[in-house]
Each structure stands twice: as structure tokens, then as C-alpha cells.
Amino acid sequence: MFKKIVNGCVRVVNRWLPDPFLFAVILTIVVFIAAMFATGLGPIDMIGAWGATSGFWSLLSFSMQMALVLVLGSAMASARPCKKALRALAGLAHNNMQAIVVTTFVSVICCWLNWGFGLIAGALLAKEVAKRVPTVDYPLLIASAYSGFVIWHAGLSGSIPLALNGGYVVGDVTYTASTLETIFHPMNLIMCGVILIAMPFVNYAMHPAQDKAITINPALLVDEEEKKYEVKTPADKMEHSKILWVIVLLFGFIYIVKYFVDVVKAGQNVAGALNLNIVNMIFMFLGILLHGNLRRYVDAIAEAASGAAGILLQFPFYAGIIGMMTVKGADGASLAMIISNFFVSISTNVTFPLWTFLSAGVVNFFVPSGGGQWGVQGPIVMPAGAELLVEPGRSAMAIAWGDQWTNMIQPFWALPALGVAKLSAKDIMGYLVIVLVFTGIVACLGFLAWGLWF
């Protein structure tokens, strides 16, 4: 019965799930029609709101920040010291159980630190583990590596909590919450801890009997030969110059240290001072350090940049959706305001984050990006939460958790890991349905407890 359910989910996803960009287009059309009814504005006015500077191009800075999160994290994961560390971790696995548990545990931690890093590091670790434990079910192993992504938006590279830390403006109101009220809030850490400890064993419980396991020949997992560089010309020597490499590192790390020293001098909490810019800067200069010279890092960035194509294409459309949702008609009403009032009418201070979490999980199918989803749902959720006296951090984290939750059955972000593993989405999707159910239960109970006890 269980296998029939899993196989049915895989068939539905493969048949009906189009490219995520088409979701953005479909959502644009839906919001265009709905916003005209909500505001009384005509189609030309609505297209004007869609394409205006406050619409289509309003997320340019944020788009670049999100693209860098993915590219910088992926580039760092491809560095030789990182690969060496992953091989050492893979050596901890000697049987099927250890293979799944180690892969899941490490993947969760890596994705919490940086989601771009975690996506690639998890897949690379899974390949190393499969070389050492050839009897492990390979699709489940890759699913376990990807399952760590279910924690990314609650971690250090979470776009929503880091954006909120810098202040988020909706109309004339600015909403602010430090990372102590989001990423490092006790309830967020408790939910992350439960997933970190329990999910490795949930994943192992899905391992099929050995005679039905789909294994892979370790010979097929041989890494591509590392690129060799010839240093002949003056240009080659400059590109591989240790002096220039050291100078760049000094600039970066001196500024990073100065940034946190200034935070401490100002009497602020160091954890609360994290934002997208400083997190990206840390990962950039760690990547430069680990690659050993500037030429290798440039090539690593070039290879990782293709993974950001979806962000670059889709974010302007999400921004256009925001423009249509927030434009006001003659009576001062906007579509975002009407939806916000609906959520207020069915919620209490305790249940509002729960409803927000569930709705964010649905929206994630149409907007498979945390940053894009924040742009679409932020103008709705933040004013509604404020009206119910829900703290900005709790409202924002409900969106963040909903976004990361249904990534388990939305294959957009699995593509980098699947490319490394040489599998397709249908190979792992059935297992991830179970991960979705487990993490959904943890989040629902967690947000109810957040409202009742904190």
C-alpha cells in the first residue's frame, strides 16, 4: 500500500509539474485578473503597476543577493579541502544505516549554514558514501542528501530572516526583527534540532529490502579529473599569484572582522547583525581561501553560475506580481490588503503562523524561491500579523518554513544535486513525500508551541 502511494505521487509529479518559470507566468496571469477585480483598475493600469520601477524591477538588488548565495556556496563546496573533508565524513559510513544517517545529518547541517553550499556538498557526500557502501539504495541516498534542504530557510542563509533584519517596508510601515527573533529564536532552533536528530532515522526507515534496493556501481561514480593549469605567460603568473591571492584575502577578512568588532562596540549582538551581504561576503572569501588561488576560484564561480539562471529569470516576474498585488484602487484597497484581511478574519494570535505556514507551502509550488516568495507573501502576511499582534519574526518564519517545506516535492532546487548524482527527479520524489509529511508535522506543532509558550 505504501509503495502504491509513493509511486502514485511520482507519476502525478512527473506528468503535471512544468518548469518553475511557467508557474511564475501562470501566477502573473492569475494575480492580474484577481487584482483588477479587487481594485477596480483596468488592464492598462494593472500592466502599468506590473512593469513599473516599483514592480518588475523592484527586486534587482535582492535578486543579486540570492543569486550570490547559491553561486558562492556552490563554489565553496567544489574546493579541494571541502571535497577532502566530505571524503573523511563518508568514511564514517560502513553499512546501509550509517550511510543514510551520516548523509542526512551532514546535509542538514550544511544546508543550515548555507543552502547553496549544502545542496552541492550533500550530493558530493552521497557519491563518496556510495563508493564505500555499495549496497545502499542509491536513489534513497540522494534523496537523503537533498532532504537536508528542508532546513535551509531556518538557517544562516535564510533570505527572509536576513532581509527582515535589515528592515522590510510595506507601504508606509517598516517591519524589523533581528536574527535573535528569527534564526536564533529558541523555538526555531528546537524545530531544527528535532529534524536534525530524527530525520536521519526517518530516512533510513524507508530503505527497501536488500533484494529490492537500487544500487550503483562505484566505478560509475569516479570524479572528473581535476583541471590542470599551465603557468607560462605573465598573465598566467598573475592569475596564479599567491601575493595577489593574499592581498585579496586580507581585504576581505579584515573588513569582516572590522564589521563584527564595530557591532560589538555599538553594543549589538553579533548573531543579530547577520544579513545577506555579510553572509555572502564570508562565503566569498572562505571560497577564495579554500581554492588556493584566484584562477581556480574564478573557474569555480563560472561553473556554479549556471545554477542561478532560474533566479535571474524568475525574480523580475515575482517583482511584477508584487506591483500588481500592492497597487491601490480608487477606494484605497489592494489585492494584498483584501487577502490580508481574510487571514485576519480566520486566525488568532496563535493560529495565524500555522495558517501562514500551510499557505506558504502551497505558494511555494508557484514561486519556488524563498526570496520570490517573500516578495509575494510579505506584503500580505506582515500587515495581517501586525493586526493580530503577532511578532514580525514569528510571521516571517512561518513563510520561511512553508517555503522550505514543500521544496521536498518541488524539484526546482533538487536539479543541482540531481545533476551531480546523475539521477532524475522521479528517482527520489517518492521518498521525499515521506520527508514532507514528517517535517510538516514538526513545523505545525512547532508554530503552535511558539505562539503558546514564547
Descriptive terms for the model:
single chain, mainly alpha, 21 helices, 2 strands
Describe this protein's structure.
The protein has 454 residues and is mostly helical. It has one domain (2-222, 230-453). The protein has 21 helices and two strands. The protein has a two-stranded antiparallel sheet. Helix 4 (60-77) packs parallel to helix 7 (115-132), helix 6 runs parallel beside helix 8 and helix 16 (335-346) crosses helix 18. The mean pLDDT is 84.
Q: Any idea what the radius of gyration is?
A: 23 Å
Find the structural class using helix and strand composition: mainly alpha
Q: Please bin the fraction of helical residues.
A: 55-70%
| Sheet with most strands: strand arrangement | 1-2
Number of domain units: 1
Which stretches of 5+ consecutive residues score pLDDT under 50? none
The counted number of beta strands is: 2
Taken in chain order, the helices and strands follow as HHHHHHHHHEEHHHHHHHHHHHH
Please state the overall shape, judged from the principal axes of the Cα atoms. globular
Counted by DSSP, the helix tally is 21
Let me know the largest β-sheet: 2 strands, antiparallel
Give the percentage of residues in beta strands: under 5%
Mean pLDDT: 84
What is the gist of this entry?
The chain has helices at residues 2-16, 20-39, 43-51, 60-77, 80-90, 96-113, 115-132, 138-147, 159-165, 186-205, 234-239, 242-265, 276-291, 294-305, 309-326, 335-346, 352-366, 370-387, 392-405, 415-421, 425-453, and strands spanning 168-170, 173-175. It has 454 residues and is mainly α.
